[in-house]
Amino acid sequence: MICWGERNCCGVFLDQSALDRCDCLRDYCIRDYAPEQRIMVQEHDLDDVLDHLYLREDEHLSELDSMLRIRSIPNNLQYEKELKQIIERLAQRLTELEFDVEIVEVKVNEDQPTQYVIFANYFSTPAKNVMLVYGHVDVPDVGETDPWTHPPFQLTEVEDKLFGLGLTGSKGPTMAWIQALDAWISRIGDLPVNTKLIIDSTRLSSTETLRKLIDSRKDFFKSVDLLIGRTNLWIAEKLPMLTTSHSGYVYFELEIKTKDKDRTKLRNSMDSNTNSKANCECLSYRDPMSELCLLLNTLTDTKNGIAVEGLKRHVLPVTQADWDIFCQAEVGVQEYKETTGATSLPHEQSQPEFLRNRWCMPSLTVHSVDQNHAVSHRDFNKPIRCVSRFSVKLVPDQSVKYAKFAVRDHLNEAYLRMKCQHPAYLRVLDQLSPLNEARNAPFNLAAYRAYESVYNVKAAIPGTVNICMPIMNELRRYCMSNVQVVGLPFCSIHMNPHQVNESLARDEYLKNIELFATLLFEVALVPPECKCTEVPDFCYEKGKSTDTDFIRIMEPRSYNTHVLYEIDEKEIDRTKPVDDALPNLRHVLLGKEADDTL
C-alpha cells in the first residue's frame, strides 16, 4: 500500500509486512540513535552562560535580598499574606522563564493559613534528560531574645560574608537554582535539561500536604530521571560529600487503651470511700500511659542506641574508602553535643565510629506521645487511651518486611515480660524501602565533574553513607524506576540551616549558582535513554525546542509525487500489462465490441 506519512505526501509503495517501512512513520525512537548523537549541548554554551553569570553577580544578590525580606513564616495567620507573596513572585519569575507553572493552594483549617506549592515544568524535547529540583521558601519565626547580630530578614554583607535567615537552608538554594536556569535561557534560549521544580511553603512545619499532592499528580513525576536535593555536607574545607545511598523508614503507631471493665477500677482508684481490698487491687494497677512509657523504654538504649534485637542486621559493611572519608571529616563529637544539647552520645570515644553509627546505621526515633483528651496544669485524670508514634530509619540492604517483624516481635516479648494489663495495638502508618545506588552512576559522576570544574576539588562519593531526606523518598515513588537521587552540598556541615546568624560567604553563594549551571551542562552530557516502556510515546511528545525530536518527517520525493491513488502491491501484480490496460483509438471511437463485430 502507499504510505502517506505524517504530512500525507510521501507516496512510497509498501507492502504490509513489518520489514518494509517508510522513514516518515512514527516508530523512530531515541534508542535508534547512537549515544553520542543524543547529546545536544556544546562546551562553548557553558562558557557563554558562565560569562553571563559573572556580569550579573550584583543583580543576583539584590534579587536574593528581596526574597529574604519577605517573612514567609508558615502556620502563622499573621504572615499569610507574606507567604502568598513570595510564592506568587517565584511563580511569576518562572513564568518569565517559559516554565508551565501551577500554584496549588490548600486550606486545611480555617484557623490555619493557606499552604502553597508550586509545580513548574520546562519541557524542551524528549531528546534530553528530565531533572526534578525540590526546594522550599519557608523560614522559622525569630524570637525577640534570639541573639541575631544582624537583621535576619534582609541580606547583610560584612567583610565578604552574607547574613540572612534562609540563606543556606531554603531561600538561598531555591534562588540559586532559578538564577542558574535564567542564565541558560538568557544566553542560549533553551535549557540543556528538561527541568521540573517543586517549591513548598510549609516544609519546616509539615510535609503532609505535599505528600497528598504528590499522590494526586503522579503524571508529573513519571518521566523524571534525576532528583536533586540540598544538603550541608561540605564535611571539610575542600571535601564535599555526594550521597549515593538514601535511607528508608517504617513509621509505627503504638496505641494502648483500657478495657471497659477496667474503667470501673480507674474510677474507684480516685474514690476515697473504697474498701481496703479495692485499694490493694489499685496498687497493682498501671494506667495506659505508664505501660506505654515502659514499652517505649525497651526500644532504645543509652549506650548502644537501638535495643531491638536483629534491627541492625542486613546492613552494608563499611568500605575502607568510607572509613577514609570519616577520618577526613571535620565533624567533632563535642560540636554535635553542643548543637543538640546532649550530654553523652553513643560511640563518642571515636569520631570515625561515631560517624559510622550516625551515617551508616539504622536508628529509632520517638516522635510523639498523645492522649485522648486535653489536659491542664492540674489535670489528675488518668488517661484511658494513649498513642505514640515512632519511626525506624532503615539503611541498605535492610528489608521493610523484616523491620516490621523485628519491632513487633520485640514489643510482644516486652509486653509479656512486664505483664502489661491493657490491650496494645501496633500499626504501620507508612513505609519506604531504602535506596542504594552505584557510586559510578552517570548522574553521580556528572555531579562529581561539576564540583571539580567549579571548586577544583574531588568530591567524596561514599558507598554506604545514608542521607535522611524523607521528602525525597516521597518524590521518587512515582518517578522512573531507575531514577537517581543526588544530594548536593550547598554549605558547610558546621552551618545548620535556620540557625542564629545564618551566614554564607559571598563567593560561596555565587559559586553555588555557577555549580548549578555547570551541573545542568554535565547532566546534559549523559545520553538520555528511551522512556517509552514506562511513559508511552514519550519520545513523540512535543516540547519548547524544535531543533531535535524523534518524529522523522521526510520531504516529498520528486520522482513519485505523481502517484494519486492507493493500491495494494498484490493488486499491482495481478493487473494486466500496460498496453492492454490503456484504451486505444479504435476502442474509443467504436467501443470495446468493435473487435468482435469486425
Question: What does the model show?
Answer:
By secondary structure, the chain is α+β, with helices and mostly antiparallel strands. Helices cover 33% and strands 18% of the residues. The protein has a 6-stranded mixed β-sheet, with helices on one face. A 4-stranded antiparallel β-sheet has the order 16-17-13-18. A 3-stranded antiparallel β-sheet has the order 6-7-22. Strand 10 and strand 11 form a beta hairpin. The two termini are 41 Å apart.
Could you give a short description of this structure?
By secondary structure, this protein is of the alpha+beta class. The protein contains 19 helices and 22 strands.
Strand order of the largest sheet: 3-4-8-5-9-21
Strand content: 15-25%
Q: pLDDT under 50 segments (min length 5)?
A: 1-12, 14-21, 272-283, 551-572
**Which structural class matches the secondary elements?**
alpha+beta
Q: Summarize model confidence as the mean pLDDT.
A: 81
How many helices? The count is: 19
* SS elements, strand count: 22
Major sheet attributes: 6 strands, mixed
Helix content: 25-40%
Roughly how many Å is the radius of gyration?
Answer: 33 Å
State the distance separating the first and last CA atoms.
Answer: 41 Å
* Oligomeric organization of the protein chains: single chain
Q: What's the overall geometry?
A: globular
Itemize the secondary structure elements and their pairings.
Elements: E1 2-3, E2 12-13, H1 43-55, H2 57-68, H3 80-96, E3 100-106, E4 115-122, E5 130-136, E6 156-158, E7 161-163, H4 171-188, E8 194-200, H5 208-216, E9 226-231, E10 234-236, E11 239-240, E12 245-246, E13 248-257, H6 262-269, H7 276-283, H8 288-297, E14 300-301, E15 305-306, H9 320-328, H10 333-340, H11 351-359, E16 363-371, E17 385-394, H12 400-417, E18 424-432, E19 435-436, H13 442-455, E20 466-467, H14 470-475, E21 484-489, E22 503-505, H15 506-524, H16 569-574, H17 578-581, H18 585-590, H19 594-597
Parallel strand pairs: 5-8, 5-9, 9-21, 12-20
Antiparallel strand pairs: 1-2, 3-4, 4-8, 6-7, 7-22, 10-11, 12-19, 13-17, 13-18, 14-15, 16-17
Helix pairs in contact: 1-4, 1-15, 2-4, 4-15, 6-7, 13-15
